[in-house]
Amino acid sequence: MDSKKRKYSSSSLASIILNSNTKEKKIKKPTFIEAEDISSDSDISSNERSNSGLSTIKSRQKLISPKGIDFNFSSESESESEVDDDDVPLSIFKEYTPLPITEEDILKSFELKGIEYKIDNPPLMAHELLTLNCIDDDKYYVKDRKNPYNLLQSENLKNLLELFNEKIIEKLINERALQPETKPFQSDNNTCECESDSDDDHELVRLNQREKKTKKNVKKVSSKREQIATYEVLRKRSYSAGMNKEIVFNEPGQKNNGAFCYCSKRHSSSGMRHGYYPNEKPIPKCNFQSNEIDKLHHYILKIKTQLHGSSYNQTVINYNNTRYCFEGFSLFFHQNIPKNVTQCFEPVILEDGTVIEYELVSAKNEIMYTVGELEYFYQYFFVGIMEMYDLHWFPKSCKFPNTENISCKIVHVLPRFINDNTILSMANIIKWMIDTFKPVCTPDVAVAVQTNVHALTKLRRNNIGKIVVNFNLRPCAIRVDDISTIDTDDKKSNKYPKIYHRTTKIPEYSHVHAIEYQETKERANKLQSKLDRRGIISEGEKYELKQLNEILKDYKNLSGRKKCREVSMSSNNYFCTNICSDMIEHAVVLISVISLVRFNNSLDTLEKEKLKYTFKDRRLLKLSLTHVSKFHHMGTNPDHIKNVLRNLGYKRQKNKNEFINSREKRRERDIAMQINRHPNNERLEYLGDTVLEVIVTHHLFLTLPDIQEGGMATFRSAMVQNRNLASLASKLMLDHYMLYAHGPDLCNETDFRHAMANTFEAVIGAMHLDGGTRECKNIIGSCIFDDCEISLKLWNSPPMYNLQAKYKDGDRHLCEKYPYLNSLQRFEKEINIFFKNIRILAQVFCRTSLCKNALTEGDNERLEFLGDAVLQLVITEYLYQNFPDRDEGYMSQLRTCLVSNKTQACVCDDLGLQRYIMPSKPNEDVCSIQMKMKDKADLVEALIGALFIDRGIDICRLFIREMFMSRLHYFKDDMTWKDPKSYLQQYCLSKHLKPDGSSTGLLPKYKVLKKDIYNKTHYHLVAVYFNDIRVGRGLGSNIVDAAQAASSAALEYLERKDVQAKVFKFDPNRDYSQA
């Protein structure tokens, strides 16, 4: 071999970097070079790649590819055109590119919303000023002699209630008791969605491993839960006392496809989702013969949304020739409701997409009633007509799980019928219910409607849109949509008219849950997947796939499988209630509101007893407790609510255009809800994580002055790990307040404790937004050091920083003594921020090699560690406030860009921090020091840490807003936060498509074309190929950087339409699954 030093000419790779005009220089390839395929070695570090094969290069002084390294070499050496290709662009890797900012960018950054920004003032409950007169013409009430405002029932009211009980309540109980018994599926034990009631992680691991093995060789079968659902659907549809097989009915503790709760016994005895509210205690029972005006507090639930189209569909009572229309419900609670309860409210969304807005207002109690009347109304309306079997309004907590026999209900409900300024008493409403409870069609009317059109018209006018009941059937109540003709199938002598009801089939009754449909669909999916994967299948399989698709199409179009059905039943034995759907939908909102009121009362306990902090905006606290699995809170069994709305609620008819418009409105509403009412606590958890890191890092920084960056990082990781955060959440009893749904998300202890840790971080984030960092530090310290007063005292009052402790009034007088400190004053004038302790600023510029000096008493490593946490927090605050419609993932990508070493290096260059580095020897030219990008970033982070220690978080926010957030437009307007290699991969996946529009899955490949050495630095030329066509070349000091540069060149090259047509052409004869 030639022992002489290699001479570098214009043909070497280094010359391309040294020469600014790269296009004019051609790269001549030595005959001994080979290409390396690095597409499969993306996990190998750049140092390993460059060092693995370059040990032999130094000894041989020639670029011969070594053997035995981790590269896959091509069998043939690259041709001259492989390296020298003028058409394919060449890009040179740069460690970072400047991100210049203008005065306009800085002004825009000051328009960003800071941490102090509030969207609006938290809403508070209003007070109803309008007074109503309540009439009592029949003398149903008498005044108490001791308290004239307290009303007692009279003898007339007693007789009226006895008649109501005999005519309606006893009929309801007796006929319901005669219904044939049907038993739901009884499982052997309570199982979660993963079919394991064990909380042991090892048991779950073994279960998952066993499932993975069986999935490979065994045909997929229905799970235990699917078998239960199939059994339940068949049982309900074949029930002998069912009103109709297409109409679903409610059962206690049951959903439409199985049990409401499959939680283990330990988990089912606590939590909001099981109806346990931590603060509730038994309430002394009310006197049923009195209105208890001294104990009950009156509130009115007002619905803002128009539910009915006309007064014809509204419940009306005719009393003394005056129409009293149903307005809503009055609620009587046993305790005052805080005014911030409205901050916990959320709109009720019906199944048809209707959004119901409402408000709760306090009002003076001027209505005539007794508690006994309200109890009878509850039994008739909520239990009898709506069949809300899982509705529990008795106090329920872990200490008092069963209080039905020893306590009064939390709330009593009264329907409001109003005309102008007059409201009906409850006695008049009870009397109206008795008078209108009559058969829909008597035998005489049944005979008359057969020949008399006017009789049929009158019958339809009196019953269409009303609720009718038959307590012998399930469900007992149904909405009448039409009455016409006679029931010719009736074997009795009298022919009764038919009642028609238009219903929407529940998903469990649709074709999707039919076993035959599932088997056919599974076979069709397998054949379609085989066709997509291979591109061709046999003729027999093609014919089978065609037949299966036809069967699926016919199956969906069967009359019995349609989603919307009209069912009919005989009007015999049905009784009219004269109640319309407006009362039903008001009651659905009422149930949700009562549960939210109970939840809000529980939050009072959490704030006073656990957090020791009262939120100004209760919405933040509620949001922090909302798990990602939580859906809309209905206040009881959600399937019961949906069934009631389907059977008794309004049937809103929409044509095609109205349906499309409503769908668009629902989409806009969903977007608005994500912006204004974040559905879960992910964003707050993202913010709280950075708050925790700053608080813990600052504490370690002050209390452990001799521990360096690595040690503090270890301590911080131990303190903020999920295991410890879950323990802190347990001390606050957050698991009793979390809002999450039944399902597989939290079915074992590990997942549940991880959710608790996230909830704790979300609560910290909410407190940070509402009250500041100091409140967060107090609650964290009280949880961690609740059993150690010394540690808690140290947490609340940490020692001063060593550079601050010696000169408590500041050390700026030392500038006269030390010329270096005097030179730093020029830097302070440049950034317009002046330090109280200028030695802290000097420590920012002290390198590790100069750590032992009397001026700074240490280097900048610890400040850099603190500044990194502060920078993360402030950037997260700005992103949280200014991107309310973005999720955690998007904000994380933006933050990664803003706090990256590249961005910080740009800030370092703009501020000229290198000029102020502390010299290691006299007359050292610090500007000539070769600083890496990471070193520049460390300087910026150390400066932020110094600002935090000396001037506080507010000055840090100003500095970061001007220097970092002013560069936000570089990242949010395009995809520049992704590295070019990842962006090229996504771009190719989206462009190279099959004829059916799906991606081929083909990815770019990278090859090393040439290596070279210049001034002891390795240079690599890498090319990127897609679909066997070269699309870009890149040059860098290591393979990873060169691949990134090649990806940038490829993205530029692929912008040409002629190149796209050639590169992204689909080849039908190629098997892309192997690629």
Automatic annotation (TrEMBL):
Annotated InterPro entries: dsRBD_dom (IPR014720), Helical_CED_Drosha (IPR058938), RNase_III (IPR011907), RNase_III_dom (IPR000999), RNase_III_sf (IPR036389)
The keyword RNA-binding is assigned to this record: yes
Residue ranges constituting the DRBM domain according to the UniProt record: 979-1056
GO biological process: pre-miRNA processing; primary miRNA processing; rRNA processing
GO molecular function annotation: ribonuclease III activity; RNA binding
Similarity comment text for this entry: Belongs to the ribonuclease III family.
Protein name according to UniProt: Drosha
